[in-house]
TrEMBL record:
This is GDNF family receptor alpha 2. GO terms for cellular component: external side of plasma membrane; receptor complex. It comes from the Eukaryota. SUPFAM superfamilies: GDNF receptor-like. Its main location: membrane. Keywords: Cell membrane, Glycoprotein, GPI-anchor, Lipoprotein, Membrane, Receptor, Signal. Residues 37-116, 160-225, 235-331 form the GDNF/GAS1 domain. One of its GO terms (molecular function) is signaling receptor activity. Belongs to the GDNFR family. Pfam families: GDNF.
Amino acid sequence: EDAARCSGFYFYFEGELQCFCSPACLGSPGWREPLDCVRASELCNQNSQCSSRYRIMRQCLSGGDKERNAMLASKECQGALEVLQDSPLYDCRCKRGMKKELQCLQNYWSIHMGLTEGEEFYETSPYEPIHFSEEFRHASIISGNAFLPCSEAGKPCNPCLDAAKACNLNETCKRLRSAYNSICSKALRQFFERVPWELSYPLLFCSCPDQACAERRRRTIVPSCSHQERHKASCLELRRTCHSDALCRSRLADFHTNCQMTPHTVTSCPRDNYHGCLMSYVGLIGSDATPNYSDSSPSNITISLWCSCRGTGHEEHKCEAFHRDFTHNTCLKNAIQSFGYGSEGGTLLVTEPPSTFLPPAQPPVIAKPAPSLHGNAIKPMDSACVFSTCANLQVSLHIVVFMVSA
């Protein structure tokens, strides 16, 4: 009887025959609880129809842009994609910092790259939705209140220096911060993924009353290594470079999903979830699309990528829209200010007009408690160079691996 009602894929789970139903067997267009994409791939491989189409789809996405677009237009690839849209892979998502994050993201894009290639300038995040944390809100208020009054009477107020001192009092924070100050991208990602945000976020989002404090904040990510290059590439070229890496592409899509400027909200963030925007922003640090403060102004926060739109010709308007997603992003500015001053303090910035290109609609928020993330730290022996920009650091990274595992 159950089999008669199911028009999806069968697979074995914990010794029992299960069915992943297609949308048709749900009775009405509805939402299916997403699996993580590593598990979804395993389930697909248990079904001969799904696994054969999955192999075809991976072949369709191989090669350069021109070859890939031609392959995706073929009947065989379109047929495989149609079948896979009824598989567990279609609705799968990934957890930030999970053990097999890169594998999970590669599985996600093996389906969704075929659905969006060349059609959407902005892509939906492959990560599970971020649920606003009351703990985060209260911590940001405490953080802001702690830094606003100067710690010592008569001395200049420098919340960023106070944050650095707090980090140095924590052994893990101090050790990993010393590592990324000398090694760069790999260690920088390790720092933000391993150190509790209660210690790392005040270093990055501290409120600044003067230029000296703002300059310390700007140098938090060691921009000479992680952000600046001798040559400023086109922002569209930087975007293409980022899209060639599954992890960078995913973090960029996550940023556009959670930091898109949204009207009729207090912070200009989707559902006023500035926590989600800050998490997505931090996720980009250490990638080919690493953002940072563009100057040392304490009063006018401007975030940018290390790129320009000069010489982009007929694509200049598209390039400028992408660039403005960082430089004129009111959601991001308000999120930083809300954290620095505490979410109940400070004056929110003036709302910017939305970009010409808008991100896709946010997927529905799961009305269930967010699962806890266990064992999600990057392991010392993980691939030393996930992002292409750190390819020349492989020898040096052995040093930081030793430091981290020591």
